[in-house]
Amino acid sequence: MNDPLAIPLGQKLLVENDRVKIWEMTLDPGESSGMHRHDLDYMTVIIEGDRVAADGGSPTSKYQGRFEADVSPGSVHFVERGGVEDAVNIGTIRYREILIELKDPAPPDAG
Fold first, then answer.
1. Is the Cβ–Cβ distance between 69 and 16 less than 8 Å?
2. Could you report how far apart the first and last alpha carbons of the chain are, in Å?
């Protein structure tokens, strides 16, 4: 099956083993990543940038609408799996991050 949301999460895969997948993503001002789905929990480590947005792209996405945020180099963010989005550099300088996908299984539902 051809899944249009199963695109790489960055331009360069830096490391992959049985526990993590580590990507580098760089976006020039105004550039977007392309619509993609996050099937794993992940962390981002901001290397460069000043402002970024995520445009939610699917009714099944855990996160809806547009989210905009100021970012600063050195900040680290944890994000739960389930998002479908297009990351957009809405800042004035290049945006660069390291994205670390965590391959450990999802925690069981608390229901």
1. no
2. 32
In a domain, 38, yes or no: yes
Half-sphere exposure of 100 (CA within 13 A, CB side): 11
Look at the chain and report how many structural domains it folds into: 1
Neighbours of 12 (CB within 10 A): 10
**C-alpha closest to that of 45 among 87, 89, 80, 77:** 77
Give the model confidence (pLDDT) of 73-83 as tens digits: 999 999 888 88
Quote the pTM value. Answer: 0.81
Q: What is the CATH number of the domain that holds 91?
A: 2.60.120.10
Are the C-beta atoms of 61 and 5 separated by less than 8 Å? no
